[in-house]
Amino acid sequence: MTVNTYEPAQYPMFYFIGVTTGSSSIMKVFPKWSEALGIEAGIKGIDFPPNDSPEKFREVVRFIKNDPKSLGALVTTHKINLFKSCRDLFDKIDPYTEILDEVSSISKSGRTLIGHAKDPITSGLSLEAIVDDEYWQRSGGQLLLLGAGGSSLSLTLYLHEKALKGGDVPSKIIVNNRSTKRLEEMQAIHKKIDMQIPVSYHLTPDPWDNDKIVGTLTTGSMVVNATGLGKDRPGSPLTDAVVFPENGIAWDFNYRGDLVFLDQANDQKAGQNLTIENGWVYFIYGWTRVIAEVFHIDIPTSGPELDRLSRIAGDAN
Questions:
Q1: Is 121 helix (H, G, I), strand (E, B) or coil?
Q2: Per-residue CA distances from 134 to 121, 128, 283, 294 (Å)
Q3: What's the chain's Rg over C-alpha atoms?
Q4: Nearest-angstrom CA–CA distance, 47 and 73
Q5: Does residue 159 contact residue 175 with C-beta atoms inside 8 Å?
Q6: Which structural domains are found in the chain, ordered by start?
């Protein structure tokens, strides 16, 4: 359901701010999760076209801030524009929001409005669900991120922090993007935090350019589709001629759409001994971390309870 006017909520309400929220799986999943978690609240979608006016974002953030029964929101697509438009409306922001200049979650503590950037946490949890604790050291693999947007940047921040703690990380991170601006923004943030893992940045306006770099990866490397191609827009950042790294991992941040990237990887699964992952785990972590924050409840990041929520979500689709 899409909100068109901001009337005071009649019962506790959780919002999903995006572009086409009505088609998201969460509209079916959240009612099932809320029942399982003992949450008495509804969910409503609020849709804006990309790059909508700052005043539209300010209007919805003011509404959530001032309406007693509006508890918070998950934000997709508009994370950067919404925060830049509404920074002064937040009473508190978390450290990742400070670095990334974006919010993916809005919560309240009493009358205090809090902005969170959850993607470094959710992308990191998702990665750890795919690789074991010594995978990178054992394989010597590299990480190739196709796309330099917020999800890719968030994953690099997670790995940077893990490297600071002496954890197992890729030998190198390679970032490809079809335009220069995102690469420059990522590079500036990496310089600011003194990135602890070697990173190379590549302008790749054509899928053939991505193919070439995939072909240089070491055995055991991971290739991530973080472009939105296959979900927001049809297609893949690679061509069908790409050769994935032997014993590697192909991970698509998407879990719905035409998922061409995953089709390309599946065609080479046996020949290259590939492990293939879609974005379902990312979806689960992304939503459960925000729900835990907004409703001030504990949702484990592993174990039987998370497995139960994942099964409920799967059954609801």
A1: helix
A2: 19, 10, 25, 34
A3: 20
A4: 12
A5: no
A6: 13-117+281-316 (3.40.50.10860), 121-278 (3.40.50.720)
Is the Cβ–Cβ distance between 154 and 120 less than 8 Å?
yes
Helix axes 150-164 and 119-130, enclosed angle (nearest 10)? 70
Alpha helices in the chain (DSSP H): 26-37, 54-66, 79-86, 95-100, 119-130, 135-139, 150-164, 180-193, 207-214, 260-267, 269-272, 280-295, 304-316
Question: Is 315:33 a contact under the CB 8 Å cutoff?
Answer: no
Stated pTM of the model: 0.90
Give the dihedral sign, CA 80/280/202/156: positive
| Amino acid at residue number 90 | F
Q: How far apart are CA 130 and CA 200, in angstroms?
A: 23
Paired tokens of 277:
């992952």
CA distance 287 to 283: 6
From first to last of its 317 residues, what are the pLDDT tens digits of the chain?
A: 444 469 999 999 999 999 889 888 899 999 999 999 999 999 999 999 988 999 999 999 999 999 999 999 999 989 989 999 999 999 999 999 999 999 999 999 999 999 999 999 999 999 999 999 999 999 999 999 999 988 999 999 999 999 999 999 999 999 999 999 999 999 999 999 999 999 999 999 999 999 999 999 999 999 999 998 756 677 899 999 999 999 999 999 988 778 999 999 999 999 999 999 999 999 999 999 999 999 999 999 999 999 999 999 999 87
